[in-house]
Request: fold
Amino acid sequence: MVPTRLTNLLEIKFPVLQGGMAWVSTSSLVAAVSNAGGLGILGAGPLDADSLVKEIIRIKSLTNKPFGVNIMLMMPSAPDLVKVCINERVPVITTGAGNPGPYMKNFKEAGTKVIPVVSSVALAKRLERAGADALIAEGMESGGHIGEITTMVLLPQVLDAVNIPVIAAGGIGDGRGIMAALALGADGVQMGTRFILCRECAIHENYKKVVLEAKDRDTVVTGVSTGHPVRVIKNKLAKTYMEREQQGATPQELDEIAKGSMRRSVVEGDTDNGSVMAGQVCGMLNSIDSAAEIFQKLEKEFNTVFSRLSGIVKPPTSTY
Ligand code: TUI
Reply:
């Protein structure tokens, strides 16, 4: 892979970011992905400031490569987590579920690269003006908290609207998807669900089994009625939640149903009563591999598409 403006910016070998997944991407996965040549990203979601410091110290003990931390801005702990990342000189911050504009100045002063997730063109433009170093354009094929537009449609519009590097996310599960994103003009990709099925991902095996066995139509979007859509794999909890939504349950009642649901699935392995967040690509994933193996496979798949396209697309004839 030749260096690009994104690999130069992040000082990584492959233009592949591992999505920062709350509860799921902990230090062992982050370090393994960074060591394999991508950018591992810690999901700071459920952590308090002290646990975040410990996780960052652990990552630094496992890799000397750059890594990132994802901060979910809708969490009340977000301002404290931002302070920790600045003190610990975290190389890259990605943000989700909100607008990081208010923190931008502090990050810039600390030399931290800021890469917000956007699901609309308007926010992409606003955050470029606010000083974002790059953007992650995330389509609704993703797992967890999502926007409304597909990656295929969102990505070219974001690319047309900004000049900073744009990373495609949502619906990318293998080397073919990476090639497709680059064909649309993306500078790189972010993959979440593919890295759930990583040997170094330290979640309960039951969670991985459900993702591994899921088929193309096995995810649903809950929370549309509250304005916080979340894609999960269909199970007993999702069914109850959506039934209550249809019956007109209040946001407070729905919050009560969802409370603690990631802990139940990720830590306790209760994949019936817990929330199993995953992207639509779960249907095409069929093996658990080490991070190094994932990168080898991605490169092979990418090169296979490249060869196929080289055979069917005639290079433009030179006019010289
Ligand atoms: O953040 C994510 N994905 C997530 S967060 C999460 S944890 C969670 N747990 C329970 C309920 C809800 C979430 C699981 N998955 N992705 C990044 C993302 N950000 N997707 C969409 C957005 C987003 C949405 C609105 C970014 C900005 C925004 O606009 C805010 C504004 O001020 O305009």
